[in-house]
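Good day; I would like, with your permission, to put a structural problem before you. What I wish to show you is a protein chain and, alongside it, a tokenised description of its three-dimensional fold. Here, with my thanks, is the record as I have it:
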Amino acid sequence: MAELKVDKILPATGSSISLSESGKTVLIPSGATLDASAATLSGIGARVDYCTSVQSSPFTAAAGKGYFINTGSAVTVTLPSSPSAGDEIIVIDSTGCASTNNITLGRNTNKIKGGCNDALLETDRVGVRIIYSGASQGWVTVTSANETPPVLNTAQYISATGGTVITCGDFKIHKFASDATFCVSNAGNSCGSNTVDYLVVAGGGGGGGRCNTVGGGGAGGFRIGAVSAPCSAPPLVAPTGLPVSVQGYPITVGGGGLGGNVPPNPSVYNGAPGSNSVFSTITSAGGGGGGSGDPTAPGGTYKNGGSGGGGSDTQLGGTGNTPPVSPSQGNDGGDGTTPAGRAPSYGSGGGGGAGSAGVDATNTKAGNGGDGSPVTAIFGASTQPFYEPTNGLYSGGGGGGFYTGCGAGSPAQGLGGPGGGGPGGASVNSPGTAGTTNTGGGGGGATDTSPYDRSGGNGGSGVVIIRYKFQN
């Protein structure tokens, strides 16, 4: 074999050199080095070109590219939808915060390491080179740095205990009808699930009692949030769920307020406010109590709450969404017939509900309680076994009792709001009806004449429901 020894080859003309003819092969001996540090080689092992712009927001990657990621915030890198075997991509955490702000590799319908899940890069300064191996295994790791074990983590899902647990498709639903603890043993990740939907309903207010015109109790505060709320969801739905971590979350389920003139408070004629319900950072306020028409009964803030209690004949209804949150947790109570002063006919307002305000009284009828709010768009059709009542409505205000006064006519009953509200007394000297347990419904007011001993209905207790995806 002939040998040609030279120190440098320069082109005779132009700027390129041909090492061989077209169709011929140039052999490089084993152990030899082809240094391309000062040149760009085409078709000799150079498969990836780097994008010089640092990526700080979600983008779709292209085959044959390398990307530097600014992990000042979480970034999703969507992989190509139609890759070919041998396509390579390199992703690098250039700012060193991937453990806090993960880099998600979106699979875009193709597998990653044989699985049908997105993958996470969650170690600071991680760098990974992946190659598409074909439909069977999809994208696989070729090389990686700063990551042990391998950088591609498959989906993890929330795992928890507490309350009454129902499985519904790919979701677990925990219902808490009383105080308990929601214990998270696996917080999941963004590829699987790490956020929960929630419904937190406070106890409803008690209806007013003892006198001839008394307001209905307001519904307990209604707060609901969903990871992904459908278009059919009511406007009260917060647009995000709650992230969870491995810990125990104490659950407080608020009790309903006592109706007016209910032992051990036989001389307290106003309905008592309901108690708060709490899950994590979400607190729903108890419903306001129903007002009493007795001239000796004190006024005040007892009617304000998640939803406001109804006013008696001379009173305005209580203010809902107290304290204020967004989205609103409830509505105002209905006004009495003549809040500026007594009249020959006087009626009482209905308690406010999560879905609508309590209805004002008229000269012929007490106001009905406000409607509750549906939760079926988030938690499923109304036949779900964890619903109470079964129609999937919660936090309906109680209706106020009504009496025309001094024998001038017959009482006209205010109805309880759909979603657990109790109606007012059905006739003279009838007690108000309690709100339904675990709905946050307000209690109905009592109608009465002398000896003023009828009691308003107690508010219904609240409820907490938590939902999360546990499998795919």
